[in-house]
Design goal:
The chain has a single domain (2-17, 39-134), classed as Cytochrome Bc1 Complex, Chain D, domain 2, CATH 1.10.760. Helices cover 45% and strands 0% of the residues. It has helices at 2-15, 43-59, 83-88, 91-100, 121-134. The radius of gyration is 14 Å and the shape is globular.
Length: 136
């Protein structure tokens, strides 16, 4: 039920993307209604919710790069489940790309930054674990 609600919210966010231009990065920040107050969630639960609300739009619910916004993006979102890519990335690099976006590691600027997570390292660590689980 929660997953279905998040998909509906995510698709609504996609439909509200102001640019509408092919290759434009989707809005990375969900509305206040889309994410429950961080104070009410454990770092693990917050990371799961953020992954569904922010990451899944492009990377998909299973990290395969097939989210609802993926078709409009060039370059296409990374398949986070690719084992060779997983081996090539350190946890530190994953933290950097989560916080600074693609430009943080010299990749696509379409991968948005999440500077609001800079003071929440436990949540970022949980997001790294989620990315690692895509490859297992």
């Amino acid at each position: 039920m929660i997953r279905a609600a998040l998909v509906v919210i995510a698709l609504g966010t996609l439909a509200c993307n102001e640019s509408g231009a092919t290759g434009a990065a989707p809005s990375a920040k969900p509305s206040a209604k889309a994410v429950v107050s961080a104070a009410a969630l454990s770092p693990s639960d917050e990371a799961k919710q953020l992954a569904q609300a922010r990451c899944a739009m492009c990377h998909g619910l299973d990290g395969k790069g097939d989210g609802p916004s993926a078709a409009t993006l060039n370059p296409k979102p990374r398949d986070l489940s690719n084992k060779d890519w997983q081996k090539s990335m350190s946890d530190g690099q994953l933290r950097t790309v989560i916080l600074q976006g693609g430009v943080g590691i010299g990749k696509s600027p379409l991968m948005p930054a999440n500077p609001d997570l800079a003071d929440r390292p436990a949540v970022v660590d949980e997001l790294v674990r989620i990315v690692r689980r895509y490859g297992s």
